[in-house]
Design the sequence.
């Protein structure tokens, strides 16, 4: 099937959801060669992925992960991180050779939301060296990622927050990591990453790297059974809510999808530049997050608070953006966000480690 699919996509024709499922089954089971997979996902990127294609691929990928059975409702903050892929780093860092262009905002957001009483299940992976992704910063904060499904379930119940490390939930898919690394550009895999939350979250806040994708991904989330979602793209190529300009928002709520834009000024914040939220190594990014959680002021706090506001908004805890900003700020100023981090570090380090170097184990499968 993949040969026919490559021919079709190269001719700028869309695949049906069923055709995409068939192709992804070949890719995930290694029936398709690495060269065929690379050709297919590159051609798909050039054509532009449709909601049906993304949905079909996501259904197959979701069947491949180990589910974490969580009885309570969870919010997913998973996203295609701007800090991970070489293409975006080259576009935004102006020569930065190591680290990231901005600090890991979504990690700070998860802790702020959890401090406000929202249950968070966030999954992700380490970056491709020398960059700095989600899991690198989590480890730098002192959190142990190597836990079993049972331990993760207990972590969610006792702490109200768990970080799901990709290599522990996606066995047998390590060959895709090697292919992605060699291609070196964003592909459909980047769009799939945030859709495959093993905890089965029904509410999601998702950042995307292009404004055209907000409505596309909202439609995909709806097809996959997500009940409520905010999909955002910020100016200056941020897959976060932006304090540097407008943020395009697409909301999924009550079965309806609507789009609009907001600016920092509309929620009582002043506009900031990328230089003010610049990140670095895992250690440097962890230090930025700690400073925010301990009450530090400035642009880094503002962008974390704005992204936290989105979580309070879509969960219904805030009636509008201004109230969401207020609740996110309270989570920090009350010390609850930092306390949540302390509880998470304590819990994860008291548990017996599950795998030694799980990320390397997954890549070499």
Sequence:
């Amino acid at each position: 099937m993949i040969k026919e699919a490559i021919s079709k996509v190269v001719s700028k024709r869309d695949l049906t959801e069923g055709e995409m499922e068939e192709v992804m089954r070949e890719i995930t089971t290694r029936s398709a060669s690495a060269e065929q997979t690379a050709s297919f996902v590159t051609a798909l990127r050039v054509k532009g992925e449709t909601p049906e294609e993304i949905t079909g691929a996501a259904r197959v990928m979701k069947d491949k992960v180990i589910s974490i059975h969580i009885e309570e409702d969870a919010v997913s903050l998973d996203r295609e991180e701007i800090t991970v892929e070489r293409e975006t780093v080259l576009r935004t860092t102006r020569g930065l050779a190591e680290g990231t262009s901005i600090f890991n905002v979504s990690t700070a957001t998860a802790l702020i939301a959890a401090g406000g009483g929202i249950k968070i299940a966030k999954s992700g992976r380490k970056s491709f060296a020398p960059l700095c992704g989600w899991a690198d910063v989590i480890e730098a904060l002192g959190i142990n990622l190597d836990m079993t499904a049972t331990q993760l379930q207990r972590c969610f119940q006792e702490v109200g927050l768990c970080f799901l490390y990709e290599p522990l939930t996606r066995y047998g898919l390590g060959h895709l990591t090697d292919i992605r690394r060699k291609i070196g550009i964003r592909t459909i895999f980047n769009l799939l990453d945030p859709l495959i939350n093993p905890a089965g979250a029904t509410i999601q806040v998702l950042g995307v790297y292009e404004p055209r994708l907000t409505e596309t991904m909202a439609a995909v989330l709806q097809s996959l059974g997500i009940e409520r979602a905010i999909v955002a793209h910020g100016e200056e190529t941020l897959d976060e809510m932006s304090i540097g300009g407008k943020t395009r928002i697409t909301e999924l709520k009550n079965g309806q999808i609507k789009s609009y834009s907001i600016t920092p000024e509309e929620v009582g914040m002043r506009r900031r530049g990328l230089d003010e939220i610049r990140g670095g190594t895992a250690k440097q990014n962890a230090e930025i997050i700690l400073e925010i959680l301990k009450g530090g002021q400035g642009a880094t706090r503002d962008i974390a608070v704005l992204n936290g506001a989105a979580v309070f908004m879509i969960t219904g805890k805030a009636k509008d953006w201004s109230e969401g900003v207020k609740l996110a700020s309270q989570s920090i100023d009350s010390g609850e966000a930092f306390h949540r981090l302390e509880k998470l570090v304590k819990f994860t380090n008291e548990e017996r480690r599950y795998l030694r170097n799980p990320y390397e184990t997954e890549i070499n499968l």
